[in-house]
Amino acid sequence: MFTMNDILEEIKKLKIVSIIGMGKNVGKTTTMNYLIKQFWGKATLGLTSIGLDGEKFDILSGYKKPRIYVRSGTLIATAKTSLLKGDFTREILRTLPRSTPMGKVIIARALSDGYVELAGPSISREISFVCNTLKELGAEIIFVDGALSRKSLAAPGVTKGVLLATGASISRDFNEVISATINTVELLQTKEEENSEIINIYKDFSKDYKLIFIYTDHMNLIKVDSVIGSSKEILNNLDETIRYVLINGVVTDNLILSIIKSPYAKFMKIVLEDGTKLFLSPGVLNKLHAVGCEISVVKSINLIGITINPYSPEGYEFDKTAYLEELKSKLNYPILNVMDVIK
Predict the structure, then answer these.
(1) Among 19, 85, 136, 242, whose CB has the most other CB atoms within 10 angstroms?
(2) What pLDDT digit, counting tens, does each position of 226-250 carry?
């Protein structure tokens, strides 16, 4: 049986871990606060975020949120405006050339305990730069806090492991939350592409071309502003000789439902950067597989555990035991009720 210690031991080995939430109020910040508490005094922590987190109230719903509490000695990478909102004494260590809508990212060392608001860049390569700078300045374990619907920070090029936070706030329907969580785990765990030549082509060309078509005897590179809405371009480039479609961007239900209408879908495989680029509803992936088309990724994601929050700020809750046991029966990961471990 998995325990919280399994997750903590894995974090010690991986060093850089992100916490991503399936929605608002699923316990992501509570999870981070628990992890900070567990490692306080045992390692120098570094904290950052993709987007904004740690504010007193949810800017959309107005619900009061748990705030991120840091301890003396913690290294914090956050935007200037957010740093000024913290109530801890700090020492400014470095101002980074990376800017956010809330100002340049500043790395500071906490000289006292207190609350912090985290706001970082929203692009994977910039988060990676921030994490590397935190390491350079002495952070031994780094936590990256995700923003609403921004799974992209889980990209394996940014962090070494991922914790997924799910909760009752996603839906009042218990079975819908279970199904959505299982589906998200399945998407995040999409298998790596085994053909090394295809992976090399992706790495060589995907920065400049969002769509790459590989046929039996040639390759076609297409520039589009966004993959979303590009179903027409994809369908126009399919024929009986297509073998791979390499996509640098987000794949949604609409795109997949368009592709499966093509008689050529059965001849090809779709390759993405990683599982965070898949935003598919339960069942849509099965429809794609049913026509003979598979999806693979350049790099798989290391999911190290799942935390659940059986309470919703809207005033309803799930039976915590049933919620935990149902997910444990379906998923082979450490799964913990984050509201229990903080007591």
Answers:
(1) 19
(2) 898 899 999 999 999 999 999 999 9
Q: 201: domain range?
A: 196-297
Coil, strand or helix at 245: strand
CB 89 within 8 A of CB 111: yes
One domain, residues 216 and 98: no
Is the domain of 109 the same as that of 145? yes
pLDDT at 59: 44
Span 48-98, pLDDT tens digits: 988 665 444 454 444 555 689 999 999 999 998 889 999 999 999 999 887
Residues 162 and 292 in one domain: no
- Side by side, which strands form the sheet with 335-337? 90-100, 103-110, 75-79, 45-49, 141-145, 16-21, 161-167, 303-309, 335-337
Measured distance CA(119)–CA(111) in Å, rounded: 20
Mean pLDDT for all residues in the chain: 88
Strands 114-116 and 45-49, how do they pair? unpaired
Q: pLDDT tens digits for 144-164?
A: 987 545 555 555 667 889 999
> Looking at per-residue confidence, does 292 or 123 come out higher?
292
**Spatial contact of 338 and 8, defined as CB atoms under 8 Å apart:** no
Domain count, the chain: 2
Q: What does each C-alpha distance from 192 to 52, 266, 271, 275, 292 come to in angstroms?
A: 31, 19, 9, 10, 18
Axis crossing angle, helix 320-330 with helix 174-188, rounded to the nearest 10: 40
Q: What per-residue string of b and e applies to 113-125 under the rule 16 or more CB within 10 Å gives b? A: ebebbbbbbbebe
Q: What is the CATH number of the domain that holds 292?
A: 3.40.140.80
Instruction: Note whether 223 and 200 are same-domain residues.
Output: yes
